Amino acid sequence: MGIKVCKFGGTSMADGNVMLRAADIIKADRERRFVVVSAPGKRFSGDIKVTDLLYQCSDAIEAGDLSAFEKTFAKIRERFMQIQKETGKDVGMAQSLDLIETEIKKGAGRDYCASRGEYLAAKIMASVLDIPFVDATEFVRFTVDGTLDEKTFELGEEILKKCGKAVVPGFYGLDVNGKVKTFSRGGGDISGAIVARSVMASLYENWTDVSGFYACDPRIVDAPRWIPELSYHELRELSYMGANVLHSESIFPVRSAGIPIRICNTFRPEDAGTYIVQSSTRDFRENVVTGIAGKRGFTSITLEKSLMNTEVGFVRKILDVIGNHGISFEHLPSGIDTMSLVIDNEFLKEGTLEQILKEMQEAVHPDKIYTHEDIALVATVGHGMAKNVGTSARLFKALAIAGVNVNIIDQGSCERNIIVGVEGEDFAKCLRAIYNEFFI
Ligand code: ASP
């Protein structure tokens, strides 16, 4: 008998009734032995995720605003008390909430605060399923530089296999000082993959509120084509570029062990979902492009200098400037006497852009330096692209016909993706043009 690890996202934990539905899904298959949960998400549009409320609590504590903290914490309390009531289980919720409130007030820290939604949701699910609760702090470990410590898998194997079945809260673990540390937002998907790898699962099921991946964002393209199967590589490219179904880092723990991932819909469990596998078995002749994804909100910084190509260390000096600010770049297109850096605007808040431009000026004395602050990046991804002559010609022709001006072109040497940078305002037009060319 194989072992399946099921991770349930925030909408699948949104209230007690949905939790009971998730429990029915788990009970319907004896192989579903390990469960990882997110904090309760939105119940309706306009609702606030528990994790967001917890971050608000942490902001209030940091600002020394106790009354704002108490007001927000009261909303969290009400939500969890209601969930406890709906599930019909007594997990000592009131006492747990009192304890958490005290710890946060005593300064337990931002990550501890943010992690409590998962912690409490897992307590409830363990009680509903009547299987052990195993806290993520028992085995998920981070290294000094904040990355996942490899010993997590050994510890996880030891602890989880002993239990045989368990519910584990997603999203956090322990840092080297023994303090709770969270992954980046949406990181419960990574926790699910960690558990899958620790118990060497035959399948990692990721239960969410959509029936898998689609070839384009349904908010931009009407009823886009469903993708039955993706490779790990394709998934990484699409999710990094904004396909919001699964955290882009969640493949790493399972990829080396070859554990497939299945995206499933808690609200339509009969749907096939999307399988994510080592290498896609789809026929590349029929599936030149697997999917298209993109994001707005990037800035390009372009530097021009005569004889840049002969100046040893030019690019290194520029990268040192952004590296010293803890900024990573998305793309680095270059010509003989020009280079551009494409950076996520998230890194460029509060005067940072002005500061790094000044430092670049001092470091390399360019003839010209200029920025473009509303760039959208769109990635066209597919393992079939390398084998089909004329794919990029079709893509650029489609963009030309649609009147989309392309500012940046980047094709990975693996030929699995073509990334274009366009004006932010052309974002949707760009996605639609590429989708229509390859899918309609
Ligand atoms: N609750 C966390 C978030 O909202 C983590 C997760 O749901 O995966 O980002």
How would you briefly describe this protein structure?
This protein is an alpha/beta fold and 440 residues long. It is 38% helix and 21% strand. Residues 9-10, 38-39, 49, 51, 117, 170-171, 185-189 line the site of aspartic acid.
Hetero compounds:
aspartic acid
CATH top-level class of the largest domain: Alpha Beta
Output the CATH topology of the largest domain: Carbamate kinase
Tally the beta strands: 16
Mean pLDDT: 95
**Unreliable sequence segments:** none
What Rg is obtained from the alpha carbons, in whole angstroms?
24 Å
- Tell me the overall shape: globular
Percent helix, as a range, is: 25-40%
Walk me through the structure.
The protein is of the alpha/beta class. It has 2 domains: 4-277, Carbamate kinase (3-Layer(aba) Sandwich), CATH 3.40.1160.10; 291-439, VC0802-like (2-Layer Sandwich). It is 38% helix and 21% strand. The protein contains 13 helices and 16 strands. The chain has helices at 16-27, 50-62, 66-87, 93-105, 110-129, 151-163, 188-198, 232-240, 251-255, 314-324, 352-364, 391-401, 427-439, and strands spanning 4-8, 32-37, 166-169, 172-174, 180-182, 203-208, 213-214, 226-227, 229-231, 261-265, 274-277, 291-304, 338-344, 368-381, 406-411, 417-423. A 7-stranded mixed beta sheet has the order 3-2-1-6-10-11-9, sandwiched between helices. The protein has a 5-stranded antiparallel beta sheet with strand order 13-12-14-16-15. Strand 10 and strand 11 form a beta hairpin. Helix 3 runs parallel beside helix 5 (110-129) and helix 6 crosses helix 7. The chain is globular, with a radius of gyration of 24 Å. 45% of the residues are buried. Bound molecules: aspartic acid. Aspartic acid is lined by residues 9-10, 38-39, 49, 51, 117, 170-171, 185-189.
